[in-house]
Amino acid sequence: MKNSFIFVGLLLLLVPLVTAQLRFGFYNSTCPRAEQIVRKVIQQRFKNDPTITAAFLRMHFHDCFVRGCDGSVLIDPTSTTPSEKDAVPNQTVRGFNIVDEIKKKLETACPGIVSCADIVTLATRDSVALARGPVYAVPTGRLDGLISDPNLVDVPGPTFSVSEALQSFTEKGLTLMDMVILLGAHTVGHAHCDFFRDRLSNFQGTGQPDPTMDPALVKTLFKVCGTQSLPFKKDPTAFLDQTTPFIVDNQYYNDIRSGKGIMQIDQELALDPSSESFVSGFANDTLGFQRSFADAMVKMGSIQVLTGNDPAGQIRKNCRVFNPPTQR
Ligand code: HEM
Ligand SMILES: *[C@@H]1O[C@H](CO)[C@@H](O)[C@H](O)[C@H]1NC(C)=O
Ligand SMILES: *[C@@H]1O[C@H](CO)[C@@H](O)[C@H](O)[C@H]1NC(C)=O
Ligand SMILES: CC(=O)N[C@H]1CO[C@H](CO)[C@@H](O)[C@@H]1O
Fold first, then answer.
1. pLDDT 10s digits, 106-149
2. Same domain, yes or no, for 269 and 192?
3. Which domain of life is it from (predicted)?
């Protein structure tokens, strides 16, 4: 008898942990203006700098792929403790000051309520819509994590093959089709020459450019990037979608189908027999791309999230630092 009481008690304790999940309009009652506050900042920033769409898409990806969407990508390193920002792939993630601005406004409106992980998710959604991408609802209720470790950053690299990259997506519960549609985020933004310069003059030691790249594009990019043995002083960048670099559309798939993928993984996606048919499908289906992209973003935004009263999470006061141990 006593044992079953303890059992039921334990169950009651566990229930909120187990059933807590992301919900649409999670802040309806606790911070009704939350989504509006995020949207307003993003609208203002986008007016001056339409590249923030790319910044947030990449930030959200890097957040979700390292220990789940928990705002770990936002933590600043200190003199004693490194963070994800010290990891090489993270060093070109940008947009942190916009998160700070949003957080400050949210802390004024409803202190301690809206997580940094949700800010990144909502800001990404809003900046995608402004770049003429899909308009979609995202569920919220993420908690911020308590760990940001550069050694855990193992996002796929630009020279990965499709099957290598897929491995890291399936580890997160994503499919090949999810990967093809999420890489469609490369419809906006830029890449530093360092990530693809090897394709322009001495591909894999052949002394020749990558034969899968359109020769006219090789010429253009070579002028921008220089060669490996003689790089320009500062690492320049090139648009990932050379046709419509500020619009979230399916043009990326048309680009890569005509040899205009910038990084090796982009080009491989159009050539690998496993992904090729998805690529031609999205290249040909403007609306299908918009719908699938929105769905995949929601899916990516749900990877390994912390919710409810999970002790592994908190609502950070400052997105760059964990709360002091005395407060949750
Ligand atoms: C196999 C998977 C992926 C690889 C290897 C990869 C690699 C890269 C690399 C190397 C860059 C260049 C960064 C720079 O030079 O600043 C980049 C840029 C970018 N990536 Fe990816 N990426 C992948 C998947 C994704 C996903 C899933 C998203 C979002 C859903 C994404 C969004 C972006 C965006 C928007 C940029 C442009 C960033 C900017 O303009 O600052 N990527 N990616
Ligand atoms: C918040 O409000 C919206 C719109 O009325 C509704 O669809 C959603 O289910 C609500 N969410 C919660 C968690 O109450
Ligand atoms: C696009 O779709 C049309 C009609 O469905 C089809 O005839 C055409 O071959 C497709 N093109 C590509 C590139 O898949
Ligand atoms: C954008 C950003 O914060 N980049 C950081 C990446 O990591 C290096 C090394 O810690 C920092 O100097 C950069 O500021």
1. 999 999 999 999 999 999 999 999 999 999 999 999 999 999 99
2. yes
3. Eukaryota
Instruction: Report how far ligand 1's centroid is from the alpha carbon of 273 (Å).
Output: 22
247 lies in a domain?
Answer: yes
146 lies in some domain: yes
Ligand nearest to the Cα of 282, by number:
3
268 closest CA partner among 156, 173, 188: 156
Q: What is the CATH number of the domain that holds 166?
A: 1.10.420.10
Ligand nearest to the CA of 284: 3
Ligand 4 atom with the shortest distance to the CA of 93 = 1
What stretch of H or E contains 254?
helix 251-257
Instruction: Identify whether residues 29 and 71 lie together within a single domain.
Output: yes
Is 62 catalytic? The answer is: yes
pLDDT tens figures, 171-202: 999 999 999 999 999 999 999 999 999 999 99
Q: Give the number of the atom of ligand 1 that is nearest the alpha carbon of residue 55.
A: 41
Strands 144-145 and 313-314: antiparallel
Task: Give the domain extent around 79.
Answer: 24-154+301-314
- Residue 7, SS3? helix
Contacts of 169 (CB under 8 A, 6+ apart): 156, 175, 176, 178, 179, 182
